[in-house]
Specification:
126 residues; 5-stranded antiparallel β-sheet
Length: 126
């Protein structure tokens, strides 16, 4: 029984947390981004210096360029590791950050930085 408990505890510690996306956004907040990006002044090359290459690039109908950055950090709910109960009630929770920048020529025209909660449930009873 002790061996099973140690294996379960080790698995919980190793599988408990994951992150994906642009690692430069990991420690950013709306305030810290505001200190780095100024609408009408900050250029594409400056943004690339701060945050690296964008995760996605798209264009508006008018030809303006849009860069998107995202970062997500999730943790597996502890109920997932409870024998039998975890089959019915499990999932993840965490946060997601998204930075979207609209350029006019090579200068930032507008940007938004948003942080939101992520909550998923995948158990049979959820």
């Amino acid at each position: 029984m002790k061996k099973f408990l140690m294996i379960a505890l080790s698995a919980a510690l190793l599988a408990g947390c994951a992150s994906s996306g642009n690692q430069q956004l990991k420690n950013e907040t709306e305030v810290s981004v505001q200190s780095k990006i100024q609408e009408g002044k900050t250029t594409k090359s400056e943004v690339k210096t701060f945050f690296g290459s964008p995760d996605a690039v798209s264009y508006t109908d008018g030809g303006k360029e849009i860069w998107k950055y995202s970062f997500a950090k999730v943790k597996i709910n502890g109920t997932t590791f409870i024998p039998f109960y975890g089959l019915f009630h499990n999932g993840t929770n965490g946060t997601k950050k998204e930075l979207t920048i609209l350029y006019k020529n090579d200068v930032v025209e507008k940007y938004t930085m948003a942080e939101s909660a992520i909550n998923t449930k995948s158990g049979w009873a959820d």
